[in-house]
Q: What sequence folds into this?
């Protein structure tokens, strides 16, 4: 009878410790996901702020280029067309690069998931 209580107690302790282990691992997964989301959000905010400032500067510089082309003898309408074509090509290149970089960001917490798989395998090995 004492032996039965000891076995029941041991099984209860093992189940309790497995539960705590998985709760800790899930907490790590949440923390890793939160960290990645925070990094992406901070980077996005900085990019947006820089884009607003750069946009104002870009308008001024493009106006200066059109004026310079007019001084060089190119009609103003052609200057606007040339500047627009060059700017459109540049914008397309930046868009492609940004899209590629965004797709390469993996939000899945691989380290934590690998650790969870290893813990699960260890528990499964010791239970069976």
A:
């Amino acid at each position: 009878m004492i032996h039965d209580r000891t076995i029941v107690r041991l099984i209860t302790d093992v189940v309790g410790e497995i539960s705590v282990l998985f709760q800790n691992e899930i907490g790590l997964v949440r923390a890793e996901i939160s960290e990645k989301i925070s990094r992406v959000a901070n980077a996005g905010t900085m990019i947006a702020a820089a884009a607003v400032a750069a946009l104002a500067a870009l308008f001024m510089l493009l106006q200066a280029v059109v004026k310079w082309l007019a001084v060089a003898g190119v009609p103003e309408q052609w200057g606007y067309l040339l500047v627009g074509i060059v700017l459109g090509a540049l914008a397309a290149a930046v868009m492609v690069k940004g899209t590629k970089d965004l797709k390469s960001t993996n939000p899945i917490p691989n380290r934590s998931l690998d650790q969870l798989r290893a813990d699960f395998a260890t528990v499964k090995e010791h239970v069976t």
